[in-house]
Amino acid sequence: MFGKLKNLFSQPGITIASPVSGTVVPLAEVPDPTFAQGILGPGAAVQPSEGRIVAPANGTVDMMFDTGHAVSMTTSEGAELLIHVGIDTVSLKGQHYTAKCKSGDTVRKGDTLIEFDIDAIRKAGYEVVTPVIVCNPDAFASVKTEDAGSVQAGDDLLTLEKK
């Protein structure tokens, strides 16, 4: 009985995992004003330590960009996410990126979405910091970011509180 009563009053959040291993960076520190100012939505960023993006939750791929540098998805709980690998990396026209999924694919948390060559991207003069943006924040009461520090792909990155 107590468990049922507790569930009535607690609104568990929706957890969004880190799509990549690395170091969590506050969105405000991303060297691109569109991300840093939250114009596309709230979220966090990760400075990757490996070149593999995985699904941060179960859901559907809405759009895999032709260049492979970004992917948008809707989680099974309704969060619309954008994962953007690097800053201004669309200019690479797909060089150093390999898409591992396509628009319309159903994915499970941990499925590989994109592989990329960190060293080659940096050598070409681009940042690889990877913003993870919640594009429909109005659907949630709040978007909370885990503390900065080291993170593994699959670790909690964001918590979305249901309205």
From TrEMBL:
UniProt keyword terms in alphabetical order: Kinase, Phosphotransferase system, Sugar transport, Transferase, Transport
Keyword Metal-binding: no
Compartments in which it is found: Cytoplasm
Superkingdom: Bacteria
SUPFAM superfamilies found in the cross-reference section: Duplicated hybrid motif
One Pfam family from the record: PTS_EIIA_1
UniProt-listed InterPro entries: Dup_hybrid_motif, PTS_EIIA_1_perm, PTS_EIIA_component
Domain (PTS EIIA type-1) ranges: 32-136
Entries under PANTHER family matching the protein: PTS SYSTEM GLUCOSE-SPECIFIC EIIA COMPONENT
Protein name, UniProt field: PTS glucose transporter subunit IIA
